[in-house]
Amino acid sequence: MRRFAVIAVALLVVCLGTTMVPPAGAQPASGTVVLYTSVPQEMATEFAGAFMRKHPQIKLEVLRSGSTEIEMRIFAEIETGGIRADLLWLADAPIFITLRDKGLLLAYRSPEARHVPAPFRDPGNHFIAGRLINMIIAVNTTLIPVRAAPKSWSDFPKFGKTAAMPNPLYSGSVFVTVATFVQKYGWAWFERARKENIQVLRGNTEVARALAAREFGVGMTLDFMVYGMIQDGAPLAIIWPEEGAVSVPSPVAIIKSSKNPEAARRFVDYAISVEGQKFLASKGVVPVREDVDPPKGQPRASEIKTLPIPFEWAAKNAADIRTRFEQIMMR
Amino acid sequence: MPSDAPHPPPAQARAPSRALDPRVPLLVLVAAAMVLLVVWPVAQVVYRSLLVDGGLGLDHYRRAIVHPGNLRALTNTVWVGVASAAGAMIAGAVLAFLVMRTDIPGKGWLRTLLIMPYAVPPFFGAIAWAQLLGPQGYLMRPLIALLGLEQAPFSIYSAWGIVFVMAIHAFPLVFLTVSGALERMDASLEEAARTSGAGSLRVMRDVTMPLVLPALLAGGLLAFIHSIANFGIPALLGIRVRFYVLTTSIYASLNIPDFPLATAKSMLLVAVGAAALAVQWRLQRGQQRYTVIAGKSIHPQVIRLGPLRRVAFALAVLFAAVIAVLPLFSLLLTSLLKYYGAPLAVASLTLKHYAYVANQGVIRRALANSALLGVSAATITMVLGTFVAYARIRAKLRGAAALDTLGMLPYAVPHTVIAIAMILAWARPPVALYGTIWIILLAYIVAYMPLSLRTTSATLQQVHESLEEAARVSGAGPLRAMRDIIIPLVRPGMVAGWILVFMPAFRELTMSILLFGLRTETIGVIIFNMQSSGYTQIAAALSVLVCVLILGSNLIVRKATRGQVGF
């Protein structure tokens, strides 16, 4: 929280020292908009291409980086004169709550929003999920046949040394998962996992890689990564845990200081449109809309049993949750 | 020649007092540049580490030290750094001697191979080694079968695994520094010892060793600091076994997010680096009196190994194969696999990742950016570094030693923190460089200045004053003496230093990832992006491409300069 105090002070200084340009009123949707996103590079580039073909008068510039790196960037930018992007599309929902509460996001109710279920959008319309990324259990079937694999999150710690989970100190979606687990099981789940010697790797990618390389039999990681590896031929399987997956909505939001909010709104419309969601589904992402078919072999959003995510609580207690996790799992 | 000896008339007429020394304004300019480049951004970080609830205080330092986990990260950092540097120094000294001073065959390509680990991003080196020696590694499985074991006899995911991979990545630093010193050494000293009846071993112990010791220490210091500041290797190999060093601990603090604690921990890392620098200076005190390059140009004698020649060659090749060929082969294999971890069979190989790489405009743009940044950073740091080293060692200008220390400090600042410092320092008007390629260049200059300072100092220390004095006596001004005498003599050392900066800058990742903006991605950023979104094979293909580009350009440069420039 100290960091936010620092940022708040810095913001004040910035506000006093420079004249903030108020967001311009309704403009025709054209010109350039900048998107900061953690959507994988390849997907982001192609998605931007598809958007610009639909809106040839808008130029969308994409800066792709990891969720964590973009967060550091955003906070550094806030300290030094404001976020340089018009749009954000990241995996870590709590950061959007933090930014919303600081008044840095622009509310926008897209006409397409009614097709997106309520849990996937901010009640005040400051952000809306552009895709769903699901924390699931993955197994390497050459080591552990699916029938012997853990069926639920409660089973997971039993697999001890052969089980791997990613680290919330290095990844946004894992942080959301840990917060969800703490609400559901308390810290006891982690204490048990630690006792059973579950290994904590760096990020979701590392868990998926280590599974494919047969270093672990089971792992907690993201569905679309495993899905992609299965498409390539890896002997992996996705298990949807009995209690429910952690379906992390990956929100899209418009930055309040955007100089081109009209074009930014067109992007939000496109991201959650049938066309945009179809494109993402073709890349293995579960769509946020019911009227778009999921990728072959993947469930619909409504069919996924999910654990309730305590977004507000997670956003307010982020530092404490991460610190506690570090104390239990990493000592 | 003692410096207080009376100067002959021309020199006296030219330099009646120090104030007119044309080198002074130059030094002031360089000092201003250093303050702006290094002090201002680092001060931003120090300031934040002291900022406690609006006031100033040491609370964050207390937190960084008092906590047992943090303290362990500190001690781990120190011993891992010492162990890696020691490994790199032993291997570096032996290999440099073999390649530079003996008659083993294949020196040209051996040299190139031995420097290769430096071209591979450390986090990719760690991935490659995990693939080779992990519990299911390409080498581990046959080894387990060979020994008839149940499971792996050792784990790469351990403190010693980290030391091993770090030592390999730090090895080229020692190798380059020591071979530079051996190349420039005045062979007449060895000659003299030999004529006086000393045997080969005795000459080595009493003459050669003391002469290359400064370079070995400088290389060892670089290796130490390189290792303690590394993040990729302990992140991949240490986190899962709960082995933390300061860099991984700092990264965790940044993400908690506890920025003040992260900055305080960074200052601890700076302190470790500064302590190492101080130790090196103590050890080196008095070394300067050795004359290494005097007026005569005699090429060092090549020692004939006789029957040992084959053995030495075989060992050198084996070593090069282990540190350079194996990891590159592992990377190459990864880049050809249909999916990560696929069994080694023709059916699971594909070229599609290379096809993808070849078709991406963004990758071509990133390569161009990285080339521009690498060349500019290497050239600028070498020019600045040469001036500082010259001012300190040769001109003995007051304040130059302080500049040298200043320039060394950022090497112990984790690159993530340097990047944040650059944003804090250069994102606001009137100098709003953030988002442009120039802020990345500034960060590279800050981060790689120490490499340049150490190599230029080590080189310059070996050039005897008498040469410059001779030029001055013959009527040349200090600038002319520098241009005509010093620079040609130190050129080989400077080329080595240039390469030491260019290679890591070309593939830099940690700073670029926070500083890149629209259209200013570097190749390191793209590699990391691919790797972190699960496209490990594409990232491996790009890493292979980077190595090929570095090797290829080196080959062209060497051909074009007939072996004068290159590695």
Helix and strand layout, with pairings?
The complex is a heterodimer of chains A (331) and B (567).
Chain A: H1 2-17, E1 31-37, H2 41-54, E2 58-64, H3 67-79, E3 87-89, H4 93-101, E4 105-106, E5 127-140, E6 163-165, H5 172-185, H6 188-195, E7 199-200, H7 204-212, E8 218-222, H8 223-232, E9 236-239, E10 246-255, H9 261-271, H10 274-281, H11 311-316, H12 318-329
Parallel strand pairs in A: 1-2, 1-3, 6-7, 6-8
Antiparallel strand pairs in A: 3-10, 4-10, 5-8, 5-9, 5-10
Chain B: H1 9-14, H2 23-50, E1 51-52, E2 55-56, H3 59-66, H4 68-101, H5 107-115, H6 122-133, H7 140-147, H8 159-184, H9 187-195, H10 200-228, H11 232-237, H12 246-255, H13 259-284, H14 308-336, H15 352-358, H16 361-394, H17 400-408, H18 415-426, H19 437-461, H20 465-473, H21 478-506, H22 510-515, H23 523-532, H24 536-560
Antiparallel strand pairs in B: 1-2
Helix pairs in contact in B: 2-13, 2-16, 2-17, 2-18, 3-13, 4-8, 4-10, 4-13, 5-14, 6-8, 6-14, 8-10, 8-21, 9-10, 10-13, 10-19, 12-13, 14-24, 15-24, 16-17, 16-19, 16-21, 16-23, 18-19, 19-21, 20-21, 23-24
Summarize the structure.
Chain A is of the alpha/beta class and 331 residues long.
Describe the structure in your own words:
The complex is a heterodimer of chains A (331) and B (567). Chain A is α/β, with parallel strands linked by helices and 331 residues long. Chain A has 12 helices and 10 strands. Chain A has helices at 2-17, 41-54, 67-79, 93-101, 172-185, 188-195, 204-212, 223-232, 261-271, 274-281, 311-316, 318-329; strands at residues 31-37, 58-64, 87-89, 105-106, 127-140, 163-165, 199-200, 218-222, 236-239, 246-255. In chain A, strands 1, 2, 3, 4, 5, 6, 7, 8, 9 and 10 form a 10-stranded mixed beta sheet that branches. In chain A, α2 links the parallel β1 (31-37) and β2. Chain A is globular and about 55 Å long. Chain B has a two-stranded antiparallel sheet with strand order 1-2. In chain B, β1 (51-52) and β2 (55-56) form a beta hairpin. In chain B, α19 (437-461) crosses α21 (478-506). Chain B has helices at residues 9-14, 23-50, 59-66, 68-101, 107-115, 122-133, 140-147, 159-184, 187-195, 200-228, 232-237, 246-255, 259-284, 308-336, 352-358, 361-394, 400-408, 415-426, 437-461, 465-473, 478-506, 510-515, 523-532, 536-560, and strands at 51-52, 55-56. In chain B, 72% of the residues lie in helices and 1% in strands. Chain B is globular. With 567 residues, chain B is mainly alpha-helical. Classes of the chains: A alpha/beta (331), B mainly alpha (567). At the A-B interface, α1, α2, β2, α3 and β7 of A face α12, α18 and α23 of B.
